[in-house]
Amino acid sequence: MKHTGREQTKKQPKPLGKQYLVPAIKRSFDVIDLLAQRNTGMTVSEIHRALHLPLSSAAAILYTLQILGYIDKDPQSARYMLGLKLYSFSRRLVDQLDLPGRCHGLLEQLAAETGFTSHIAVMRDGESMYVDRVPGSGLIQFSSYIGMRWALHASGVGKALLAFLPEEELARTLKYLPLTKITPHTITLRSQLEKQLQQFRRCGYAWEISEGEAGVACVAAPIMGLEGTVPAAISVSGSTHQISEERIPEVGAVVKRYADLMSARLGSVVE
User: Fold this and answer.
1) One-character DSSP codes across 119-177
2) Residues 61/31, Cβ–Cβ less than 8 Å
């Protein structure tokens, strides 16, 4: 076989220009982008005016996105909002962030500073799930493990994941969240939980005392992602003697400090 001295190169496809954009697909994503900016949702008329779409086109796009599960429609107000299916995509994105890889060192520092068992958790199928764990240095140890799940309304990390969701997303999540009684201290009234979550949002961290397991207390804070997302939360757990109600502000300030450091590693700008 003769060699010409030239390397054979595969013909590379030419970059596509804007003329190859599919208008119907672009308009659909314009609608999704618009709804992502409006916490209270929008009516079909408002979307039609904002995007300068024919009313019939706006209605057809909304109907299609609703049938596919990407948006929801409030039957009373006729306002459209982003659907949980889009939120599930953000959950999958969390899997690609490698949270333990990026934040494990900080989790070790949190456990060393507080002496408490420390966790990173994410939201999965209406529950909180541990994705990383560092045991505490004290005599009291907890038999938690990576993959362990807790009810959102009865765990510190679950409350932190809930409290810092965008309002519309929180409302949709709470609508279908069973408030099962786990201990005598578990909150089972939606109005009471909503009031508590507002309090957590104001102070920047969450907590629970004997709500998920008798004699155990947990303090947690959200790990913030880009554009206000809450990909995960961190927590410390101890006995109710170690983390008493009086100590919660002190422990909460430490947990929030480490949560902010982890948020910065994910590219979030912490105020």
Assistant:
1) EEEEEETTEEEEEEEE--SSS------TT-EEEGGGSHHHHHHHHTS-HHHHHHHHHT-
2) yes
Show Cβ contacts of residue 230 under 8 Å, excluding neighbours closer than 6 positions: 161, 164, 165, 222, 223, 224
pTM of model > 0.85: no
Residue 11 lies in a domain: no
Q: Is 6 a member of any domain?
A: no
Taking alpha carbons only, the member of 45, 35, 44 closest to residue 82 is 35
131 lies in some domain? yes
Count CB atoms within 10 A of the CB of residue 174. Answer: 17
> Tokens 């199928």 sit at which residue?
125
In terms of domains, do 153 and 240 share one?
yes
Tell me if 170 is assigned to some domain: yes
Extract the tokens encoding 148: 């362990």
- How large is the greatest C-alpha to C-alpha distance in the chain, in angstroms? 85
The tally of domains found in the chain comes to 2
Instruction: List the chain pLDDT tens, one digit each, 271 residues.
Output: 444 444 444 555 566 566 678 888 999 999 998 988 777 889 999 999 999 999 999 999 999 999 998 899 988 899 999 887 776 665 555 555 677 778 899 999 999 999 999 999 998 888 999 999 999 887 677 778 889 999 999 999 999 999 998 888 888 889 889 999 999 999 999 999 999 999 999 999 999 999 999 999 999 999 998 767 888 999 999 999 999 999 999 999 999 999 999 998 887 766 6
**CB 84, CB 172: distance < 8 Å:** yes
Judge if 99 and 232 occupy the same domain. yes
Amino acid at 24: A
Strand bridging mode 71-73 / 80-82: antiparallel
- Specify which residues 117 forms β-bridges with: 237
